[in-house]
Automatic annotation (TrEMBL):
Record InterPro entries: Arsenate_reductase (IPR006659), Arsenate_reductase-like (IPR006660), Thioredoxin-like_sf (IPR036249)
The protein, known as: Arsenate reductase
Family stated for the protein in its record: Belongs to the ArsC family.
Organism per entry: Pseudorhodoferax aquiterrae
Entry annotated with the keyword Oxidoreductase: yes
Pfam families per record: ArsC (PF03960)
UniProt entry keywords in alphabetical sequence: Arsenical resistance, Oxidoreductase
Amino acid sequence: MHATIFHNPACSNSRSALALLRERGIEPEVVEYLRTPPSVERLTGLIAAMGIAPRELLRSKEALYAELGLDGAQWTDAQLIAQMVQHPVLMNRPIVETPRGTRLCRPGELVLDLIA
């Protein structure tokens, strides 16, 4: 099974999801999104595939979130996506994409629904 994980090695949820994939014999494409952020088009597609609003992918506890005032209602979906592409630290993680679906795997065990 092909899988892609948008991964942050410093995140325990991300490490957990990656370990669960590997324990089940799946070697995913690992995208360290802090080094290689997705394009606007790719991130828009991931958000649509997850069936969530862009705001749901934002890390509201990230200091930059408050600095940029991203809690304000004036931000459009397109603007929020642009901010996540420009500042990938604002993205929640890990996002895992498989033929069975795409989801934000917080906690990491949620990845099991995508590979069962």
